[in-house]
Prior knowledge:
alpha/beta, eight-stranded mixed beta sheet, five-stranded mixed beta sheet, 14 helices, globular, binds adenosine monophosphate
Amino acid sequence: MTSHPVVLILNSGSSSIKFNLFDGKTELITGQISGLGAEPHIKFDTHHGQGDIDQLLSPQEGETHATALQALLHLIDAEVGHISIDAVGHRVVHGGADYAAPIVLDDAVLADLRKLIPLAPLHQPHNLDGVTAAQQAFPNAVQVACFDTAFHRHHPWVNDTFALPPSFYEKGIKRYGFHGISYEYISAYLGQNYPGGQSEKVVVAHLGNGASMCAIHNGTSVGSTMGFTALDGLPMGTRCGQIDPGVVLHLLTAEAMSPDEVTELLYKRSGLKGMSGISQDMRALFASDAPEAAKAIDYFVTRIRRELGGLAAVMNGIDTLVFTAGIGENSPEIRRRVCMDQEWLGVEIDQRLNDAGEEMISSPSSRMKILVIPTDEEEMIRRHTLNLL
Ligand code: AMP
């Protein structure tokens, strides 16, 4: 028995479910079920020093999100002991125009969120499958949704709109922005660890397999590189990032590609993987001698530099630049190239601090602080879920 609320965090994708189980602030078990519907297995760490444990699931256990959560329940029983789960916090990619904060899920909210599936077809249906499965597996738990779009819901209109007739905006065709749970965590971290940190003009570069940048002023997102979908902005592992909409029209007409083929190209066969023809993984590109790998890295860095200038203009300057997520946290070389020759903007990196993996990597003469802060979206979801209990 435990005296703290026990919270399970779920991040459900098309064929995977990432999970973290917390007893209060203590993480009991963390892991991922992957290969749902194909070759399901579960990888987890109970934080007892034995590291990751990888187990195959039976095809029946790994058939659907619902069966996988039953398997997770058995695993928790076996590894942690019988524990009653008070709340489940779900990552839900899209909260649309209305959901600007985490919310306790009920049938009406779920029905609203299902209407947003066309806006995020690759993520939203699976996020909601995870909710339905969790309702079945943990019927007594409070179910909470945290949205990747919510943190961006206070953008000024000019940073939210496209130059289309207003009727499209009213129908919801606007810039939503994503990675908001990560940005909110970083903003809160700055508030806790740097005096006045939240009241500054901050640009966060979330550079992972998905990548975007966000301008945050006084703790509020005022602009994002991502738009209507999570395709826009920076190039990503397999997503193209910014592209002239005329290219899409050309692919559909002159190239006679179907909408499904274009979707697959832009979401899954573009970005670092598509440009290099080698990998979506930045480490593999750095390890390669192929000129295409170097070109893909160059393009990635160039787009980050362009967006940095653009976001500085959104806020009339930047006080703090933060690098986060897999590439941002772990690649001194990408950070160096982004910051190189940017003294005009007030960016001066200290290469020694950068290579040493310090949190503060700006030189004393830099006009802005440059920081490397590991993001923690699960922790943000845990806090929101507890707040709503
Ligand atoms: P994420 O989606 O946040 O897990 O980030 C995944 C990305 O981080 C992949 O492209 C990885 O190659 C990249 N990454 C992780 N570690 C490193 C590293 N040491 N150097 C460069 N890229 C890295």
